[in-house]
Amino acid sequence: MSFDVAAIRRDFPIFERTVRGGKKLIYLDSGATSQKPETVIEAESNFYRSHNAAVHRGAHQLAEEATDAYEGAREKVANFLGAKSEEIVFTKSATESINLIAYSMSNAPSGSRFALTSQDRIVVTEMEHHANLIPWQQLASRSGAKISWFEVLPNGRLDLDSINAVISEDTKVVAITHQSNVLGTINPLEEIVARAHAVGAVVVLDACQSVPHMPIDVKKLGVDFLVFSGHKAVGPTGVGVLWSNQLEDLPPFLFGGSMIENVTMESATWAPAPKRFEAGVPNMAQAVGLGAALDFLSKIGMDNIFHHEMALTKYFLEKLQEIPTLKIVGPLDLENRGSCISFTVGEIHPHDLGQYLDSQGIAVRTGHHCAWPLTRKLGVPATTRASLYLYNQEAECDLLVSGIVNAQKYFA
Amino acid sequence: MSFDVAAIRRDFPIFERTVRGGKKLIYLDSGATSQKPETVIEAESNFYRSHNAAVHRGAHQLAEEATDAYEGAREKVANFLGAKSEEIVFTKSATESINLIAYSMSNAPSGSRFALTSQDRIVVTEMEHHANLIPWQQLASRSGAKISWFEVLPNGRLDLDSINAVISEDTKVVAITHQSNVLGTINPLEEIVARAHAVGAVVVLDACQSVPHMPIDVKKLGVDFLVFSGHKAVGPTGVGVLWSNQLEDLPPFLFGGSMIENVTMESATWAPAPKRFEAGVPNMAQAVGLGAALDFLSKIGMDNIFHHEMALTKYFLEKLQEIPTLKIVGPLDLENRGSCISFTVGEIHPHDLGQYLDSQGIAVRTGHHCAWPLTRKLGVPATTRASLYLYNQEAECDLLVSGIVNAQKYFA
Amino acid sequence: MELDTLYQEVILDHYKHPLNKGLSGTYDVQVHHINPSCGDEITLNLTVRESKIQSITWDGVGCSISQASVSIVSDLLLDKSLDEAGAITEQFIELMHSKGTKEGDPLVLEDAVAMAGVSKFPARIKCALLGWMAYRDAADRIKQSQDSVDERGGSQ
Amino acid sequence: MELDTLYQEVILDHYKHPLNKGLSGTYDVQVHHINPSCGDEITLNLTVRESKIQSITWDGVGCSISQASVSIVSDLLLDKSLDEAGAITEQFIELMHSKGTKEGDPLVLEDAVAMAGVSKFPARIKCALLGWMAYRDAADRIKQSQDSVDERGGSQ
Ligand SMILES: Cc1ncc(COP(=O)(O)O)c(C=O)c1O
Ligand SMILES: Cc1ncc(COP(=O)(O)O)c(C=O)c1O
Fold it and tell me: Closest residue of B to C12, CA-based?
């Protein structure tokens, strides 16, 4: 197979360092944030070193170059998603992207298809990250709309039996994650999108854990909005994406420079999308870095990355389950399942387990993973999560397993 | 004098490049965005190369280092402003900072001192950047509050004679720029803050054009909120600051991970400030870069930078006014005046002038500078702006002057 | 000098001696367009007789590129049918987005080919398009009102 | 091994054999505290007699550090006056923020000095403080209710 993990790892400078007194870094926390290849770091640096100027605002050469670099990055994101450039908005993060949608809906004039009232309903799921839950709770409380949700079954899948009851006729928004950052569950969009559209609701897809890990074509997904964060896709921090093919109908969110058509002391009118949603001097270097990140991923191939992760996930699931008292929290089958692997180990608290693993150079995440309602539903105080990416390899699983076994001895 | 411009310029890699076929870069557009010293570029790169992990979220060593770096940057910002760490919120830009305040006020429960009603008034000035105007127009339209403003006199100063009428008893917010990004005017805060506080209003200071250019101590200013952008202060793009010593009373703006205290499917409660205002994985590398930027500026000394710019401004104002038909738009005296220098030149349209200067390697900005109501008030369609910073020097003024003279010939 | 590819003689001529500047007292449609990135504004009057453009007059403030561009529009499209004028407009827009790779057909675009160099200066494309966008908007409005006349006619 | 500076014997002992775990049926004040970054929760009952702490009982789930810490609190503060307990609490908080530069006074903090190593693991300081913060909150509430009794007394 052409997937050369060793070569890929050499592109990531962080793997040259060691942790905790000379230990090799075993990074199993890409679900929180991914590491960055040198080309991404250089793309950002190079923007500052050679092309830095405010985009869209100057007639001078640097401003032209900066604008080309920034708009070029928008085109890369669009191509990566199978979308058009004007459907791409740069935000600071997926969190901002979702808040943007929810606030812009609040800004929609009554009568607009995006304006919610107390007659309307917003549907989420029990496995949402706080970022795709609280903005909707707040929109509900601003608008008077009701909030409902799909429950999560013990096997880590959504309970879709009740789909026609949950997505009721009064539903205006269905906000759902593509892949759970705790369970690894990949949700069946086709059925949900069909039902949502049948009742005239828009679907907002939290693709934070899918865009970095699998080929995505927004046209095929059929959703109305999609968001992801650059930093989880080997890109810089401080940049996120909002995609929609319905931006023209949505009022703006942040107000300021470059998003206007006309301004007087008392009122203002707006530029067309996507500019309407990008007030102020944007996160130019970070957008450019994200463009380089998507180039990096595309060169390796999203299909290849997906298959690599699937093979790894299979290996991790099998090996981890050989540990007595270790319980996987999430689907055990590989069908519609990504590489976020959460588990509990007997009576050891995840914080203690994570700390022990850290002392061995193994970076995992512990806690509720910003999906507290899900953790509660699962009936555990917290879980330990190993989340994988293109640079992980089987040997790291073996170290994780022996780390867990040794932790059991340590805390016995 | 110890201020060594040549040495400072060597710290900025962009000055090694040329523009428009080998011409030396004369960068007079720092009011739009500043150039970046190598230490800032390296600080961001170094974060990615060696310490990258999600802050506040992991028990592993990288997460600890990332948290230290990020919180260390917060401390640097606090020290730079004479503030406390917990008074500093990282945003993506000044634009976001101002929108944060305006939206958070909308989120305040009725009865809160931050909740506006149709009985209340918001005061701005005619010289505001769109970023410190439109968010308040929108808050006014959401809350029913009225909007009033200080007028700008022909000499480029605020008309403060009417201060007691403009800041009336019903005023809740006074949003004002510290230094105009068009006129260079530095506004007299003492009088405005005193009147605002006398009627119980909070003062929001747009310090985008002051924090990078002069020593600032928030305690001495006496304002309630202050915002600025990193990218105008030799820092990275994608990071801004909100300072306030009253964050505890303000509800959150963006909702998501890491800003919560408790979350259920139906509602959530909030962490204390500043975390309450930083939802999601933050712009870590950019915050760290901003910390390095403020270190860089502090090492040179904000007093020294201010004096350097003042001397330069004096030189520019004098030399420019030797050009017949050139009219400075803004104060001609140096008292309370910064280094944003806007002007018109006879009948030449600023766009054409800017284009000609660009062909000579000189980067200025032309247009309304995101202060369209001000441009209209001044009775000009647009202006040309030279905005200076620590790396500019007198020789660049001479080139600007001869560029303008040659442009006059070109378009004659 | 690269600047001269932007500021062709023809452009500076139109700028210094603009054609059809000054608004006619009568018109079929009047539109007001604005360039939000720099504040340039123009008002344009369009009069059509028997599906042919009878007059385009305009007024406004702006840079040499935008002023020359409106001047050219107001002259070039005269006596053309709305369909012909629409096709010319599309050719011009295409030229502007060519990033310097096209020269433009002088038989169709006449003086407007002098604008070809603008396509290499992305920040100025909007200036060059200001007059054309105003014309297109005005023509669309005339077509809409005709359509609604036709429809009303048809439904009787 | 650095890990052992965090997980001292004393801590693991308290974790495995927690003191005063299980909520008393009666109490003066009950508080519920939560660590939002990891989801750990404890409930703590405080009973005070004649300005001395008569009992601290608790229940909850959490990591070894947080569990050991509550166990230590519930034992160490027993029979202390609220003022003494407050002073000990402040010393402990100071120790936690010392980044490994302090050892803690064993005469005052007793078993709690075993927590000194936690101060080198910033992500765990909140775990070590969970029990102390719950105690401080409970004590504050008792003091407030006393103050309001005193005030009412004084105003008569
Ligand atoms: C006075 C002033 N306020 C606000 C802003 C907005 O800053 P940013 O675009 O970085 O958010 C700017 C700069 O564009 C400015 O000069
Ligand atoms: C599923 C999911 N949604 C949303 C987010 C929020 O992303 P960010 O913190 O980058 O805004 C995350 C990551 O934390 C996530 O995993």
Answer: B411
Q: What is the ipTM of this complex?
A: 0.95
User: What is the dihedral sign for C-alpha B205, B210, B212, B214?
Assistant: negative
Ligand 1 atom closest to Cα of B94?
A: 11
A30 Cβ inside 6 Å of ligand 2: no
> Can you give the three-state secondary structure of D23-77, one letter per residue?
CCCCCCEEEEEEECCCCEEEEEEEEEECCEEEEEEEEEECCHHHHHHHHHHHHHC
Closest ligand 2 atom to B256 CA: 6
Best of C3, C37, C127, C137 to mutate (most A CBs within 10 Å, chain A)? C37
Does ligand 1 lie within 6 Å of residue B408's CB atom? no
Residues 6+ away with beta carbon under 8 Å from D13: D68
Q: Chains near C, with 3+ CB pairs < 8 A? A: A, B
Question: B1-21: b or e for each residue (b if 16 or more CB lie within 10 Å)?
Answer: eeeebeebbebbbbbeeebbe
Task: Give the whole-angstrom CA distance, residue B68 versus residue B62.
Answer: 10
Domain boundaries, chain B: 5-30+301-411, 42-298
The 8-class DSSP code of residue A25 comes to P
The domains located in chain D, with CATH, are 3-143 (3.90.1010.10)
Do B286 and B237 touch, CB atoms closer than 8 A?
yes
Range A42-298 classified under CATH 3.30.1490.10:
no
Of the candidates B56, B85, B69, the residue with the CA atom closest to the CA atom of residue B244: B85
- What is the residue whose two structure tokens read 């055990």? A332
For residue C40, what pLDDT is reported? 87
Beta carbons of A38 and A10 less than 8 angstroms apart: no
Sign of CA dihedral B41, B44, B47, B52: negative
Measured distance CA(A90)–CA(A273) in Å, rounded? 11
- Whole-model pTM: value is 0.96
Look at C34 and A261 and tell me if their CB atoms are within 8 Å.
yes
At D77-118, the pLDDT tens digits run 999 999 999 999 999 999 999 988 999 999 999 999 999 999
Please, how many CA atoms are within 13 Å of residue A20, restricted to the half-sphere of its CB?
24
- CA A34, CA A229: separation in Å to the nearest integer? 10
Instruction: Determine the length of chain C.
Output: 156
What is residue D156's predicted lDDT score, i.e. its pLDDT? 38
DSSP state of B149: E
| Contacting C residues, span 68-127, partner chain B, CB-CB under 8 Å | 121, 124, 127
E-strand ranges in B101-239 read 121-125, 146-150, 171-177, 202-206, 225-229
**Distance (Å, whole) CA A75 – CA A53:** 19
For residues B263 and B241, is the Cβ–Cβ distance under 8 A? Answer: no
Question: Are A407 and A347 spatial neighbours (Cβ–Cβ below 8 Å)?
Answer: no
Cβ contacts of B381 within 8 Å, gap of 6 or more: B349, B350, B375, C39, C40, C41, C61, C62
CB B88 within 8 A of CB B243: yes
pLDDT in tens, B148-186: 999 999 999 999 999 999 999 999 999 999 999 999 999
Q: Radius of gyration over alpha carbons of chain A, in Å?
A: 22
Degrees to nearest 5, angle at CA A229 with A227 and A232: 135
Joined together, the tokens standing for residue B14 give 């962009």
Put simply, the answer to whether D64 touches A410 (Cβ < 8 Å) is no
CB A61 within 8 A of CB B28: no
Q: Which of the residues A20, A265, A358 would you substitute to probe the B interface, choosing the one with the greatest number of B C-beta atoms within 10 Å?
A: A265
Asked if residue A185 has its Cβ within 6 Å of ligand 2, the reply is no
CATH fourth-level superfamily of B5-30+301-411: Aspartate Aminotransferase, domain 1 (3.90.1150.10)
Tell me the C-alpha distance between B331 and B183, whole Å.
Answer: 7
